[in-house]
Amino acid sequence: MRSIEARGLTKEFKVYQSRSGLTGAFRDLFNRQYRTIRAVNGIDLTIEPGEIVGYIGENGAGKSTTIKMLTGILEPTGGCLRVNGYDPHREREEFVRTIGVVFGQRSQLWWDIAVKESFRLLKKLYRLSGEGYRQHLDRLVEVLEIGPFLDQPVRKLSLGQRMRCELAAALLHQPRLLFLDEPTIGLDVLVKENIRRFLKQVNAEYGTTILLTTHDLSDIEALCSRVVMLDKGNIIYDGDLERLRTQWGDGRRLILELKEEVPSFVLNEKTRGLSVKWEGEGTRYTARLEKGTTVSDVLSRLVPAVAVQELKIEEATTEDIVRRIYREGAAHA
C-alpha cells in the first residue's frame, strides 16, 4: 500500500471581489462578485512507504493547500486521493491515527502546562497502551534530549527546545507518515543538525515516510533523495536531486586568477572546440563548463599558454538551480 497516491488532485477557491467606491460597496451588499482561483491544478503524486520526499515551491505555489488536502483539513475539489489507504477527509478519525504533523509556526502542545502533561493528553487522544507508550516515549526523550524540559511549560521553552518536543509529540503514536512544514525555521545550525539526524534515524529504524515542506534547501539536501517542485499549482519537477543538478545545473565554474593580464580572445582561442563560456577580463576570469567538458580539458589547453596563479572550482548549488528554474518558469522532468 502506497503512503500517498493522488490522481488529478485539484483544489479551487471562490474569492470575493469587491468593487471600488461607495457605489461599488453598496452594490456588493446585494450582488457580490466572485472569481475562482485554482490553487492546485490536477496534480499526480505517488509516495512509497519509507521515502523522504522534499516538497518545495515559492510562496503561493500551492504547497500548503496540498498538505491540507493530504492531512484531511481541506476536501479536494476534484481528483482521487488515498493516504495510508484512507480518504483523508471522509475517514478522518481513523486516518489521523496513522499520521504525524509538525508545523514550524504552530504548536500542538498546550501552552501553559508542562510538556509531559501534553504528552499524557496526546496519549489519551490516541488511545495508546501504557507500557508501549512508556517505552516509546523514553526512546524519544533520549534521542531528542528533551528530558530536562518535560516539567517546564511550553511557553518557557526556546524555539529549538519546543521544536524537539513537537517532534516527540508528533511521533508518540508511531505514525506511518510524518508531515513536516518548515520544521527548522528560525533554528540555529546546531539544532538543525540534531533534528536532521533524528529524522534520518526515525526513517531508518521505523520506516516512517516523511514529506518535508521547506524553503531551506539545505534541509532538502541533508534529508531527501527525491524532490517534488510545485509552481502555480502544477508539479514541474518530480525526481531525484542528482537528476535535477544534471538537467538544470549550469555545470562547473572554473575561477582563474592569472599572474598577468591576458586578453579574453586568447582564452577563447586556446579553448576552441570545448563547451566553455568565458567571463571576466584582465587577470580574473570565470569559465562556465557545459556538458561534455571537464576541468582537465580546459587546464590542459591553458596551462602551457598562460600563467595561472590561483584556481577554484565551484559547483552549482541546489539553491542556484531552483532559483534558475523559477526564473525560467518551468522545468522539464
UniProtKB/TrEMBL annotation:
Protein's UniProt name: ABC-2 type transport system ATP-binding protein
Database matches in InterPro entries: AAA+_ATPase, ABC_transporter-like_ATP-bd, ABC_transporter_ATP-binding, P-loop_NTPase
Molecular function (Gene Ontology), one example: ATP binding
Residues in ABC transporter domain copies: 24-257
Keyword list, A-Z: ATP-binding, Nucleotide-binding, Transport
Coiled coil regions, renumbered to chain: none
Organism: Melghirimyces profundicolus
Lineage of origin: Bacteria, Bacillati, Bacillota, Bacilli, Bacillales
